Amino acid sequence: MHSVLTISQADPRPMYLQIIEQVRRRIAVGDWQPGEEIPSIRALAAETHVSVITIKRAYLELERDGVIVTRQGRGTFVADNVELSQNLREQELDAHLGKAIAVGRELGLSVAELETRLRRVARRRNNT
Description:
Layout: H1 15-28, E1 37-38, H2 41-48, H3 52-64, E2 68-71, E3 75-78, H4 82-106, H5 111-127
Antiparallel strand pairs: 1-3, 2-3
Helix pairs in contact: 1-3, 1-4, 2-3
């Protein structure tokens, strides 16, 4: 049905945040479609070897954010909101750009230099 999410003990972030990020990513890239059932809290806890409480915390936050919905007696599903996938993709892009900015700062690059590099990479990708 679904591939297992990967929880890293080496990742300094709490496990529930890793779960939230990975569920959002699965939806953003289209692995999990709107209306599709996702693993139950207990099933995901067993698959990832993470406590039920941790999975429940992640699911509650995802539900509060409108990413997933729980239907009593039926299961947990990706929200039907068609704009959700686009919003998640934009959030994913923003996160990657934020990381690129941090690396650029570590290298001593200015915002203008980062913009130039982004344009250069985009041109290379468009030519291939």
